[in-house]
Specification:
The chain is mainly α and 193 residues long. The protein contains five helices and no strands. Among the domains are: 92 residues, no CATH class; 33 residues. The relative contact order is 0.05.
Amino acid sequence: MQQPSNPGGGATDELRSDAKELSSKAASRLHSEVDSRKGAAVSQAQSVSSAIGKTADSLDDSAPQWLKSAFQQGAQKIQQFADTIDRKDSREILGEVQSFARERPALFLGACAAAGFAAARIFKAGGEQQSSQQLGQSGSFGDAGGFARRQPLDRSQPWGEGEQGPDESLGLSGQASGEPLGGRSASSRGEFV
């Protein structure tokens, strides 16, 4: 008796082959990209290590010894990290990261979270600096060095002309119960009664 032939078998095998080839190309591109950027990472780590080492050396004698020691050890560890990255190729580095993640998952996730927070702070600071430079250079804010002059507030109204009171700025106006927060309401002069 003959086995029924699999009519979609050729297409399935071809799809598997294409998927393996695509993943192989993606992995090789990832490794080449990591290898090409490795030099910049090594030089940045070395400059950070050098800066921390200089900071440790510049501490005067009145500084606590533990602080100087902590700076020196930090500089040494960062230099060792830079040397390790410089000696190894991307496949070795990736293998070590994977084994570290398997052996110590909590520490790995904590390090990833810390790196993410640090990167977010750096990008946020860079973005704020760039936008403040653009505002200062645009000239649309007059002669005040990039800042607009504030108009004097209209004191005849409790919160000034066009300004929001505390309920509006906190989004508390129009509560479901209709009663102000804490059972008190502001008078027309901004006093609580």
